[in-house]
Write a structure and sequence with these properties.
Elements lengths: L2 H8 L1 E4 L7 E4 L3 H11 L15 H12 L8 E5 L5 H8 L4 E5 L3 H13 L5 E3 L13 E5 L5 H16 L3 E6 L10 E10 L9 E9 L7
Parallel strand pairs: 3-4, 3-6, 4-5, 6-7
Antiparallel strand pairs: 1-2, 7-9, 8-9
Helix pairs in contact: 3-4
């Protein structure tokens, strides 16, 4: 089964709770799509279907971009670990000159393209691991809910620091996951985000939007 066919067969086009201006192909239940990804697409050696859900950090970041379009309007944007492409779609809607949505999951890339089409926006999607190369070619770096694993969090922060050193604005949407380096970021906004108890520990997850502060780096 092709990736796009799998997505269309196992998701519904739904409005994002905190950002109803955007609709995404989302799973209504977590367990079935997790199992189907393992069973039907095992040959593709894919990671879990994080792309099938609107995570709290991504919702907060997308809401903030829609409400503050000047942050990305006319600028080049990289959405790192894009998942469903929620933040990337929001950046495109806010008037970004170019949006690159990056996710190493090939199925996520397919979902991003479908979601861009559903929202009538243009963006580019890639499965290239951006963390393996110097940060270049963008003015704004978006990080939605990527600080959930220690090793990944370290790589993401190093990439973000390098991007900031090159003059990029670094924005993160995060509900203070276990490995979120809060001491390195300044909070810009806080939202009560509707989520599902299947994935989170509550039906409402308080999630913030943060800006990387380069002067808070440890000596």
């Amino acid at each position: 089964m092709r990736a796009s066919q799998f997505i269309l067969a196992n998701t519904r086009l739904l409005a994002v709770p905190l950002v109803p201006e955007i609709r995404l192909h989302l799973a209504e239940e977590s367990l079935p799509i997790w199992q189907k990804t393992e069973e039907e697409l095992d040959a593709m050696n894919l990671p879990p279907p994080y792309w099938a859900f609107a995570w709290a950090g991504g919702q907060a970041l997308a809401r903030y971009l829609i409400d503050n379009p000047a942050l990305v309007a006319g600028r080049r944007v990289l959405d790192l670990g894009s998942g469903s492409g929620l933040a990337a779609v929001a950046a495109a809607k806010a008037g970004a000159a170019h949006v690159l949505a990056a996710d190493i999951d090939a199925l996520a890339v397919a979902a991003i393209k479908l979601n861009a089409s559903a929202n009538i926006v243009e963006l580019e999607a890639t499965s290239e691991d951006m963390l393996d190369a110097p940060p270049d070619g963008f003015d704004v770096l978006l990080i939605g809910d990527l600080f959930y694993e220690r090793q990944l969090a370290g790589r993401v922060l190093a990439f973000a620091d390098a991007a900031a050193d090159r003059g990029a604005l670094v924005l993160a949407g995060d509900p203070r996951r276990n490995y979120f380096p809060q001491n390195r970021f300044r909070q810009l906004a806080l939202y009560p985000v509707p989520v599902t108890r299947e994935l989170e520990d509550a039906e409402i997850k308080r999630s913030a939007v943060w800006r990387l502060e380069v002067d808070q780096r440890q000596p």
